[in-house]
Design goal:
This protein is an alpha+beta fold. It has four domains: about 1-170, 2-Layer Sandwich (Nucleotidyltransferase, domain 5), CATH 3.30.420.10; about 190-280, GIY-YIG endonuclease (3-Layer(aba) Sandwich), CATH 3.40.1440.10; about 285-375, no CATH class; about 385-455, no CATH class. The chain contains 18 helices and 16 strands. The protein has helices at about 50-55, 60, 65-80, 90-100, 115-120, 130-135, 145-165, 170, 190, 220-225, 235-240, 255-270, 275-280, 315-330, 345-350, 365-375, 420-425, 435-445, and strands spanning about 1-10, 20-25, 30-40, 80-85, 110, 200-205, 210-215, 245-250, 285-290, 295-300, 310, 385-390, 395-400, 405-415, 430, 450-455. The strands form four sheets. Strands 3-2-1-4-5 form a five-stranded mixed β-sheet, with helices on both faces. The protein has a five-stranded antiparallel β-sheet with strand order 15-14-13-12-16. It has a three-stranded antiparallel β-sheet with strand order 7-6-8. A hairpin with a 4-residue loop joins strand 2 and strand 3. The longest helix is centred in the middle third of the chain and has 18 residues, at about 145-165.
Length: about 450
């Protein structure tokens, strides 16, 4: 009925590491009935720190079978049984990946003894395997080895079955309970309270430190996506165990969610927000002169040390911006970085291009329009408001841009009228501008989505 499992591995991520040991204990719902154990040759070296933790080195496993050689017998041990483990996601994700590598499709219901213990035996200071076993009077023979840890987990599970007077285990097995996918230390109540609205969410560790900040159109759906599937995406194996609480802030507008996420990452520097800690993707427009003397534009990612004329947060937005300039100033799409194919540009064939790409138009005439285009990038820009959805039905969101630069955001009652820019400032909290935020605003002005842009 149940297969209580523990594994040892060469590292923490199922997509990068391999299994070195597997132990399985069978439980029929009344008592432990059988057990299985094997060392496994991972086909690679075992890091010294892993050997220091488990005692397993390559000499111990070099004569052991590979996972492929024992896959069928391990599958037989797990077949038609509910998978049980302490921090079940970790063990499950590794075994699922190993089975996939040898062509075995394995899916089953799973239970996590960390989550079950928190509900059936509440109030303990720690639910780590060692501390939990100690509090229950269970002595682990061979800590951090699959055999010893699996035996201890099976004895813990046996006690949980006997103490489960409120049917916690049966509830956890229900299809939509969420208990089998949520991080082991996250109260289900935290997840159940999450809204299906736009905003920014925060993952917090046991000490209340923010370890990840994200934004979402639908906060609950986005967070559920983090916790399902295997550990191959988003380094889930590490962060899952550290999440103890989730908080959030509604923004109403996707643009404000993007701005707040960027600002909060720079304020808090969460350990798992690696992308913005280093450098987020940025697309820019660059100018240069070709051999024939024509001034040209190129669209590319912004590398460290390069200086674009103007930049955006996505390739699509910079292309939309450039196409508007091509039409406004009658430029050649090919000389503007919008067409890579050889030969005539498409617009010349339709009569929209004056022939700069073929040398038909003189460099003097063409370059004059290029200079005017570049000047338009830096003209004194209007102050404007981007009006979007609010957090509630009776309000709207407000993002202000002053002379082309991001100023701040806030919220305004739907019945309120914005008379002028100065009065609009009274509804916002002035924010600190940075390059990423400005790129987000630039991109939104090119493609406002469902927002309304008001110029003052």
């Amino acid at each position: 009925m149940y297969a209580i499992v523990d594994i040892e591995t060469t590292g923490g991520h199922a997509d990068k590491h391999r299994v070195t040991e597997v132990a399985i204990y069978h439980h029929d719902g009344i008592r432990i009935t059988n057990h299985y154990h094997t060392l496994i040759n991972p086909g690679r070296s075992i890091p010294h720190f892993i050997t220091g933790l488990t005692g397993i080195n390559y000499e111990m496993v070099k004569e052991s079978p590979s996972f492929e050689q024992v896959a069928l017998e391990i599958h037989e041990q797990l077949k038609d049984r509910i998978f049980v483990a302490h921090n079940a996601h970790f063990d499950y994700s590794f075994l699922k990946k190993e089975f996939e590598e040898v062509g075995i499709n394995w899916n089953t219901k799973k239970l996590c003894t960390v989550r079950l213990s928190r509900k059936i035996i509440p109030g303990l200071s720690s639910y780590s395997l060692g501390r939990l076993a100690e509090s229950l009077g269970i002595i682990i023979q061979g800590r951090h080895r699959a055999g010893g840890d699996a035996e201890a987990t099976s004895r813990i599970f046996d006690l949980l079955l006997k103490r489960d007077s409120e049917g916690v285990i049966l509830k956890a097995l229900k299809r939509n309970s969420g208990e089998t996918t949520l991080p082991p230390n996250l109260p289900k109540e935290d997840y159940d309270r999450l809204p299906v609205k736009v905003g920014v969410y925060y993952f917090m560790d046991g000490r209340g430190n923010v370890i990840y900040v994200g934004k979402a159109i639908n906060i609950k759906k986005r967070i559920a996506g983090h916790f399902t599937g295997t550990a191959r995406e988003w380094s889930r194996s590490n962060i899952r165990n550290e999440i103890h609480h989730i908080t959030y802030e509604l923004t109403g507008s996707e643009l404000i969610a993007l701005i707040l996420e960027s600002q909060e990452i720079r304020r808090l520097w969460p350990k798992y927000n690696q992308a913005q800690k280093h450098r987020s993707e940025e697309w820019g427009i660059f100018d240069y002169e070709d051999r024939a003397g024509y001034l040209r534009f190129a669209i590319n990612t912004v590398k460290r040390g390069t200086k674009p004329l103007i930049s955006f947060s996505s390739k699509g937005d910079v292309w939309n911006f450039m196409w508007k300039k091509v039409k406004e100033f009658e430029l050649c799409p090919k000389l503007s970085g919008l067409q890579i194919a050889k030969g005539l540009c498409f617009s010349y064939q339709t009569g929209e291009c004056k022939g700069g790409c073929m040398g038909v138009e003189s460099t003097k005439k063409y370059n004059k329009r290029i200079h005017a285009t570049i000047e338009s990038f830096f003209e004194e820009e209007n102050s404007l408001a981007i009006i979007g959805k609010g957090r509630k039905n009776n309000e709207r969101s407000l993002v202000l841009v002053e002379n082309g630069a991001y100023l701040g955001y806030g919220f305004i009652d739907k019945q309120e009228t914005l008379v002028d820019f100065e009065s609009a400032k009274g509804f916002i909290k002035v924010g600190k501008e940075n390059k990423i935020v400005q790129n987000l605003v630039n991109s939104y002005l090119v493609n406002p989505r469902d927002a309304k842009v008001i110029e003052f």
